[in-house]
Fold:
Amino acid sequence: MTNPPANIVEALRNSLLANEQLRRTNQKLLGAAREPIAVVAMGCRLPGGVRSPEQLWQLVADGGEALGEFPTDRGWDLDGLLGADAELPRRAGFLEDAAGFDAGLFRISDREALAMDPQQRLLLETAWELAERAGIAPTSLR
Structure:
């Protein structure tokens, strides 16, 4: 019986070593996936005046109502939108004070804040609240 060429033996050794390294990496990933997740803080802005997780819980516990009238501070033509013949709902879930964004707190000009998507403004506010609730000074974050 003849011995296999050295390059084939070397390739098999490298393949076995790579396979062992992949096996170890896979075990580490599986172990990390089993670690518990800790929720250390929450923040939210929801219809019905809900501005905190505690208010959300209270609304649910009380069987409260999150629907309300169409807001008047959004620049919408409600008369045209909700005319007498319109088949649109008269109540819906809207966030209160969506226009009450404090641009200066985030070092954003008023002009830039007006051009921002309202969801982006809400995300900034909620992220700030989340950091505060987690005991992290929001100004310490980049």
Summary: The CA atoms of residues 85 and 114 lie 33 Å apart. DSSP finds five helices and two strands in the chain.
